[in-house]
């Protein structure tokens, strides 16, 4: 048996199902999914251990037209990741027509050394005939090594997809130890869980304006104590996040705490503070502080 190991990532337009697919493959919630576009900010590596190899999954934000410094940084990050991986899965949702966005990304991928697979996602949302038509439309986009239809929600073909990805990795010794699932620091994951909770149910313009920074974290009498700041750009946004009599912030805290307890497996005390960092998306100092 040849042992293979290498890096893989999923790309595709916003909402294509990349994060959900990553989570389905790893079988544990590590990235953030949301029905709102462009919520994946951090590069998250997750390691899938197999008898015949190791797939290191890298989660990238989407490539988009940069409007702010944050947008430019994100695009640089995406391109850098693409140039470093062995296998790229271009995700195209089964339930939306192939469009300009897919063509744009496919064009960007053609220069890379990586093997490019097409992944038709969300197959549970369409009937067989629509899926067949979509597979045909996707095959016309480019000369993909393989085209794999999957549903991350039903789990259909997820195993097959990882088999196909593993096949295209280079022969290599194991890259990470057996027990490693992700090298993303816990604090970043926790920050993402708080951010996800803070985003729930707020107006559409808020997603890009919220960032979370875990300021302090320590264990005391078996309880993990976490002090985190939620950053918004304007005081009007602060009011939205906090809610009347802080009711909304309380809910955010309750939901985030439950999610963090699930991640850490300990009791959690969570202290949240909402702060205004004016125009943090455009300010290099703020961006660095918030991990971009
Ligand atoms: N029915 C169904 N819905 C899915 C599936 N995969 C993802 N979704 C939904 O599609 C939406 C977008 O999924 P994400 O995984 O966040 O998409 P993404 O490509 O990572 O999005 P960005 O982070 O914005 O780039 C979410 O509401 C998911 O629940 C699937 O296999 N079936």
Write a structural description.
The protein has 292 residues and is an alpha/beta fold. It has two domains: 4-167, 3-Layer(aba) Sandwich (Rossmann fold), CATH 3.40.50; 186-289, K homology (KH) domain (GMP Synthetase, Chain A, domain 3), CATH 3.30.300.20. Helices cover 35% and strands 24% of the residues. The protein is built from nine helices and nine strands. The protein has helices at 18-26, 69-84, 100-109, 128-139, 158-167, 186-199, 235-242, 247-264, 284-289, and strands at residues 4-11, 44-50, 53-59, 87-93, 115-121, 147-149, 211-220, 223-232, 267-276. Strands 2-3-1-4-5-6 form a six-stranded mixed beta sheet, with helices on both faces. A hairpin with a 2-residue loop joins strand 2 and strand 3. The protein is globular. The model is unreliable at 32-42 (pLDDT under 50). The structure holds guanosine-5'-triphosphate. Residues 12, 14-20, 33-35, 37-40, 62, 121-122, 124-125, 151-153 line the site of guanosine-5'-triphosphate.
Overview in brief:
This protein is an alpha/beta fold and 292 residues long. The protein has nine helices and nine strands.
Radius of gyration computed on alpha carbons: 20 Å
Order of strands in the sheet with the most strands? Answer: 2-3-1-4-5-6
CATH architecture of the largest domain: 3-Layer(aba) Sandwich
| Sheet having the most strands | 6 strands, mixed
Under the CATH scheme, which class of the largest domain?
Answer: Alpha Beta
The CATH H-level superfamily of the largest domain is: P-loop containing nucleotide triphosphate hydrolases
Helix content: 25-40%
- The secondary-structure element order is EHEEHEHEHEHHEEHHEH
Number of helices: 9
Counting DSSP E segments of at least 2 residues, the number of strands comes to 9
Domain count: the total is 2
* Morphology: globular
What CATH calls the topology of the largest domain is Rossmann fold
How far the N terminus sits from the C terminus, by CA atoms, comes to: 41 Å
Strand content: 15-25%
What is the average per-residue confidence, as pLDDT, rounded to a whole number? 83
Cofactors, ions and other ligands in the entry? guanosine-5'-triphosphate
């Amino acid at each position: 048996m040849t042992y293979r190991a290498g890096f893989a990532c999923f790309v595709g337009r916003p909402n294509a199902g990349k994060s959900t697919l990553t989570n389905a493959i790893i079988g544990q919630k590590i990235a953030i999914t949301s029905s709102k576009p462009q919520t994946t900010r951090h590069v998250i590596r997750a390691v899938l251990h197999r008898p015949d190899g190791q797939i290191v999954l890298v989660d990238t934000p989407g490539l988009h037209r940069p409007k702010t410094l944050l947008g430019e940084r994100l695009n640089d990050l995406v391109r850098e990741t693409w140039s470093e991986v062995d296998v790229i899965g271009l995700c195209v949702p089964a339930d939306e027509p192939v469009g300009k966005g897919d063509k744009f990304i496919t064009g960007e991928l053609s220069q890379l050394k990586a093997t490019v697979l097409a992944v038709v996602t969300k197959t549970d949302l369409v009937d067989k005939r629509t899926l067949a038509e979509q597979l045909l439309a996707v095959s016309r986009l480019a000369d993909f090594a393989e085209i794999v239809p999957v549903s991350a929600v039903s789990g259909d073909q997820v195993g097959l997809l990882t088999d196909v990805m593993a096949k295209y990795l280079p022969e290599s010794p194991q890259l990470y130890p057996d027990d490693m699932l992700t090298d993303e620091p816990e604090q970043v994951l926790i920050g993402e869980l708080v951010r996800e909770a803070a985003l729930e149910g707020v107006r559409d313009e808020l997603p890009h304006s919220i960032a979370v920074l875990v300021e302090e974290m320590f264990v005391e009498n078996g309880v993990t104590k976490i002090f985190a700041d939620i950053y918004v750009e304007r005081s009007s946004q602060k009011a939205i996040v906090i809610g009347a009599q802080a009711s909304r912030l309380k809910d955010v805290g309750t939901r985030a705490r439950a999610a963090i307890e699930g991640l850490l497996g300990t009791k959690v005390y969570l202290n949240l503070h909402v702060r205004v960092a004016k125009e943090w998306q455009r300010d290099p100092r703020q961006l660095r502080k918030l991990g971009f």
